[in-house]
Amino acid sequence: MTRNKIKVFILILFAFAGSFLILNRDRFFEKKNSDPYEISVIWRSKSTESSTTIKQGIDQAARDFNAEVSFITLSGENNAGEQISLLQREINNGADAIVIAPVNSTDLKEPIEKAQKGVPVVAMQSTVTTIKDLPTISCDNQKLGSALAETILKNGGGRGHIAILRNSMDCSNIQQRYLGVLQTLKSSQYDMESWEIPNDSQEANDTVKRMLQTSGADTLVALDASALEAAAKAEKDLLKAGRTQVQIYGIGRTNTVVSLLEEKIINSLGVENEYNLGYISIRTAVEKINNKQEAGQASINFAIVNHENMYNSDNQRLLFPFVR
After folding, report:
1. Which long-range contacts (CB under 8 A, 24 or more apart) does 178-182 make?
2. Mean of the per-residue pLDDT values for the chain?
C-alpha cells in the first residue's frame, strides 16, 4: 500500500469514527432518553392527605418529563432536623435534583446552600427567604391571606371577635398569609386575639375545643390545612352539644376540610392550585438539571371558595384531586 493510500485510509477511518461519535453522542455524553431524572421531593409534614393534589401534579409531570420521583414525608410535623437529614441522604443516594418545602428559613439556609453546590434545589410552597437564587414555586401567600380577610369583612360587616390560629409560623408561606390577614383586618373594628395551636392533630383539636368554650371569639381564622381541620372538627363536635357556634375561615385543603366546607361547618376556604404547584415544581427541577437559565420563580393561582361556589368547574379542579 502506497503512502498516499495509507493517508487516505487513515482520513476515512477518522471521518468514520467522528461520524459515529456524532450520531451516538447521546449514548456517550448525555443522559440516555430511557434513563429517568431522579428527583426527590421532601415534604414538611407527616400527613399525605394534605398533599394528595400536589402528588397528582407531581405524578403527571414525572410522566411528561421522564422523571422518577420519590415523595418523602417526615415522621413528625415541621421537623427541621429530620428534613436536613433527608436532604443530605437523598443527595448521597444520587438524586439529580431536590424539591423541598422548607420547614423554616433559619435551620434550612445552610443545608440548602450546601446542597445547591451539587444538585439543583427547588423550593415548593414555602421557601428560604434569605437564599436569593432559590427557585420557588408558590402562590402569593400574602395576597391569599388578604383575600381571605376581605371575605371575612364582607360577610361579617367589620365587627366581632376574631381568633387567628397560629401554627407552623416558621414556614414562610404561613408567615405571609398571617401578614396578609393582619394588614387587611387592622383597620376594621374586630377585636382580635391569637391562639397557639400544636402540630399534633389530636392536641390541636383539644386546644381549639378548650379555647372555643372559654374565649369570646365568634370567628376563627386558620392559616393551614391542619389547623383548619382541627378547628372545624372541634366546632362540629361542640355543635352537637349546642355549646358553640362560630364562623370558620381558613386556607388549605384535605378531603376532610372539603367535606366540612360542604357541610357549612367551614364558611370560606382559600385554596391554591396544588396540582400546578406539584407539576411546575418537577418541571422546574428538570429544567434546572438541564441548565435552563429561565427556570426560576413561578406564581400559582388561588381561589376563595365557599359552599355556594365550590362546584363551579374551576373550583372543582382545586378541591377535588380527580377532577381535571
Report:
1. 178/145, 178/223, 179/142, 179/145, 180/141, 180/142, 180/143, 180/144, 180/145, 180/146, 180/147, 180/148, 180/149, 181/145, 181/146, 181/148, 181/149, 181/221, 181/223
2. 88
pLDDT, tens only, 260-279 = 999 999 999 999 999 999 99
| The pLDDT value given to residue 103 | 94
Q: What per-residue confidence (pLDDT) applies to 244?
A: 72
CA-CA distances (angstroms) from residue 43 to 2, 98, 176? Answer: 70, 11, 19
Separation between Cα atoms, residue 170 and residue 33, nearest integer Å? 40
- Alpha carbon dihedral 260, 176, 158, 245, in 10-degree steps, equals 30
Q: Would the CATH topology of 37-139+274-292 be identical to that of 141-271? A: yes
Fold topology of 37-139+274-292: Rossmann fold (3.40.50)
Q: Is the sign of the CA dihedral 117, 122, 126, 129 positive or negative?
A: positive
Per 3-state DSSP, the chain is made up of helix, strand and coil in percentages (nearest 5) of 50, 20, 30
Task: Give residue-wise pLDDT tens across range 7-34.
Answer: 444 544 554 555 444 444 444 444 445 6
Q: Where are the domains of the chain?
A: 37-139+274-292, 141-271
CATH 3.30.70.1790, applies to 141-271: no
pLDDT for 49-107, tens place per residue?
778 899 999 999 999 999 999 999 999 888 999 999 999 999 999 999 999 999 999 99
pLDDT at 21: 47
